[in-house]
Amino acid sequence: MSQISADLAAARRVPQGAPWLWRLKRYQAISVVVVYGLLLAVCLAWSFAAPSAFAFATTGNLAVLSQQIPVTAIAAIGVGILMVTGEFDISIAGTFTLVAFIVAIPFSEAGWPLWLSMLAGFGTAVAIGVLNGLITAWLGIPSFIATIGMMFFLRGVIRFVSINPQTNLNDSRPFFPGETFEAVLTGHLFGPVYAQLVWLVVVAVIGYLILNRHQIGNHMFTTGGNRDAAIAVGVNVRRVKLIAFVICAVTAGFAGLLQATRINQIEPSFATVSGFELEAIAGVVVGGVSLYGGRGAILGMVLGAALIETVDNVLVLIGAPETIFKGLLGAIVIVAVILNNIVRRRG
Amino acid sequence: MTAATTTAAAPATTATAPARTPLFEARGISKAYGHVNALMNVDFEVRHNEVVGLLGDNGAGKSTLIKILSGVVIPDRGSFFRNGQPVDISSRRKSEQAGIQTIYQDIALVRSMSIMRNIYAGREPLGPLGFMKMGEMRRTAVEILDKYVRIAGITSPDLLVEELSGGQAQAVAIARAVHFKRDILLLDEPTSALSVRETEKVLAIMRELAESGVSCVFVTHNLYHAFRVCDRFTIMAHGQNVKTALKADTSLNELTDIIMSH
After folding, report:
1. Judged by CB atoms within 8 Å, which residues 115-134 of B form the interface with A?
2. Can you say how many angstroms the Cα of residue A212 is from the centroid of all Cα atoms in its chain?
3. CA distance to partner chain B, nearest, from residue A244 (Å)
4. A320-346, pLDDT tens digit by residue?
5. What is the pTM of this model?
6. Percent residues over pLDDT 90 in chain A
7. So what CATH class is A62-346?
């Protein structure tokens, strides 16, 4: 061994010990795994200690969580994958709502077969993603601005499609796609577990494979981590971003369809007053995805969204006013962003 | 610009004639930005198994020449030859196909990604449906690190680049270039931000690479570093090649005097 090699060997950075422990400590989503684990532990302990005051660990409440968390988490996976490339999508609440409308209206009112209505709905999601991608990646408009524009545009479209011809006012639409469809998308499986949880696992596995095992995932991390380096090694950063925008829009649309199927109606207010997009982005940030691109793990995105929904659930259980949730959500995001920035600076 | 249309002007001082056809030659390279002549009829060559220092003060034209050799900037005039045959380096990809790879000062690596993912970024070995062959990537990454740069401090290809020192990151960038069959490395100020120990490592890597068949162009302001590691020097001033000399035919003082006098 040369002197240089010997010097460097002495300065080696990898600690000795179990490789799995070393990997675990360096896992990008380890913070949210620990925080969410602690939150669950506290909630369960509190619930078992005082079940009448805090009914967290009841089948009914866990069933609510197992239906709500997947909707936000599936959208968060799309948002997170996009953020890995260094971009944002503020328009997902619009996509979430519009896709459900586009599926429901032809199916319920024009007699289209469900598969054709779904094709139209997801075609709309793809079109929204492509448009966001083209405006951002080809025209060079910052995605924050471009997707705010798209958000308002989609709100306008939703106002238009949600007009009730009888009252001439914006109104919710019923959505009854049939028992089989409802059972597959949102059916009860056992105990507190509903089909949405299975769909979350499916989307998370697909997201993991895309991000960590597929070439496009490597290109997403490269694009978000160092755009110039990505271009230098021949990555088509525009194409990568466009694909990420499409994935984001499709997951938002799927989440919207899950929600509409569960409650058998579509509310135009999903796109305007729900703050769904902020919850998904907040979950992703809490889950350790970098605001600057290049970092992120699917498990972090899922647990970040789960943490947001669980906090909401806890506040409801303890009877806190709804306004507290928004304030707390803001505080969580600010803390997460500060931590995110610290990690970046250390990097 | 065509590959072989130029009038080559002799450099101010010509080194001893090489025994073999140079690995790479640039002849009569000129480049102007508006009224500013960044390069004027510059000749430059890289020989087999050598480290050649590209020296000169700020504004001498070194960066423009490196950008041209990298395929980033297209010259107004000039031609290029690899092993005596005309080559086209009018784009980054064509330059790489001609065996040239630039290792920039700020290192074109993604700091938040692992060494393995960096090595294969843009060149992933793929299996069915575009999925990466992770096992092959891992095995080869370990071999690359061991074979080309022997960086004992890097014990895992899973380390993030941001966890590496500056020298180690340079070494990873070099290893990546060498693995993908580049045999001419353009190293733009590779030691400027490094500690003494890291500098020693990068200088040693350059020597090892030259001896193993990968020629290096060492662009630097630091004449001491250049004189320690280079076999030959090309000094530029005001967009011209003002001297080319073998190490045996010059001295550190002479190189310093030439740069200072321009």
Report:
1. 117, 120-124, 126, 129-132, 134
2. 17
3. 16
4. 887 787 788 788 878 877 876 776 566
5. 0.82
6. 65
7. mainly alpha
